[in-house]
Amino acid sequence: MAIDLHTHSNASDGTHDPADVVAEAAHHGLTTIALTDHDTTGGWDEATAAALERGIDLVPGVEISTQHNGISVHLLAYLVDPAHPDLVAEMEHARASRDTRMERMVALLAKDGIPVTMEAVLAQAKDGATLGRPHVADALVAAGYVRTRGEAFDNLLHDRSPYYVRHYAPDVVKAVRLVRDAGGVPVMAHPFANRRGRTVTDHVIEQMAEAGLGGLEVYHRDHLGPERAHALALADRLGLFATGSSDYHGTGKENRLGENTTDPAVLAQIEEQATSGVAVVRR
Ligand code: AMP
Ligand code: ZN
Ligand code: FE
Ligand code: FE
Questions:
Q1: 151, 249, 256: which to mutate for ligand 1, most atoms within 8 A of CB?
Q2: For ligand 1, is residue 241 a contact (CB within 6 Å)?
Q3: 122-170 residue pLDDT tens
């Protein structure tokens, strides 16, 4: 079994169609992947059809943008009811705010003579995709201004950049409760990925655990040894399970499918905890 519980398609800021992410996972010998696009379940249907065709298992999921006192926290939600009204409303709110935030970022960049327009950004995103900074990065690559997404982030788009603008995101503890209300299983993504921006304290994670958090994404490339050890000890102390995943974004990032994986016993726990009626797609 090779289980990768965190991947992105062009339903958000990945570079590949959902069906291509699934096909590539099958090609690499993975048995199971979760599709976890930012703030959308829009890729689920295509990924489901592809999983059935390719003979691999698909865990429908989403990576919800949340925050604690302005610190961004990514919350993975597995097997969640995609039609739960409050959850849908929160994701719609975040997506709408991402659109206006993008207009503001583009205006700030353009004012300093950086060659980007909203049209150029939208040209990099599939219709209806959740807009994110990677789409601006792609527009800057297309304009020949930078070579890669990474270069755009390092120079212009990182969290402390003057061009960075925040978007709406629900409070993380409320979001944990909301995912449970929607029958899903909440897992905190890359809890200590601190090289890109601020991360929350253990105390906040304790509050998330009290609200129903299921697990921590311990094995992730943005966690080095000490961060993994800390996350693992915290998960143990709080009775949370530990997942591992690639956070694959296609050609937009170096992350490779299956570079970190999740224990089958942990996936079994996720399935046991889910109450939405949404199941893992299996042949
Ligand atoms: P946003 O959703 O607009 O806040 O942008 C965050 C997204 O940008 C995350 O999904 C990251 O995967 C992606 N990202 C962050 N840093 C980098 C980087 N250096 N290179 C490529 N993608 C990145
Ligand atoms: Zn992303
Ligand atoms: Fe994330
Ligand atoms: Fe992600």
A1: 249
A2: no
A3: 999 999 999 999 999 999 999 999 999 999 999 999 999 999 999 999 9
